[in-house]
Amino acid sequence: MRSLYSEQPTWMHAIAAWVKLALLSVCGTLLVLVERPVHLAVACAVVLLIFGSLGPPAWRRVRMLLGVAIAGGMIVGFHWAMGTTPLGVASALRLASAATLALMLTLTTRFEDLLAVLEAVLHPLQRFGVPTERIALGLGLMLRFAENFYVQWQRLDDAYRARAGHGGGLRLLAPLTIRTLQTAERVADALAARLGR
Fold first, then answer.
1. pLDDT per residue as tens digits for the range 31-51
2. Residues near 145 by Cβ (< 8 Å), separated by ≥ 6?
């Protein structure tokens, strides 16, 4: 599977994976607790500034935030129609901030490092017979498939744009689904061969 991880170093690459995961958890919790759109707008602006400070590795992935912006606009439009515009703005700002934080994590953290952190966090559960390695692997693969989904979508959209002069939009859902299923099958075969099952 292709990864969003950038080999070009940034200042965030030097931060340990567990620190970044902890900060993501704390920031995500704070975003849920904060309700005023003004405060959420400030938080979103700060997150975007941090994202921009990563330099070219982040700028090359800025297109991925376009989908988040569209989803946020739809949320605001729905709440506007329902007469709850401030709630919609707050929800859209939360979405934008959380998605940008997650994108920064995947851009600057190796999959292996994330997997090691998950295994360490789940390790105490081994005393109760819980297969923590498999759970950590499952969570890690979920993160990688989320990355792979975006990468495949971008590649298909670029190919369609080169042929038609505009983005593919919903037309890409069928080929994207096929590619995702093919990737899942290859990963399943690789895991079966490695685990002997």
1. 999 989 999 999 999 999 999
2. 1, 180, 183, 184
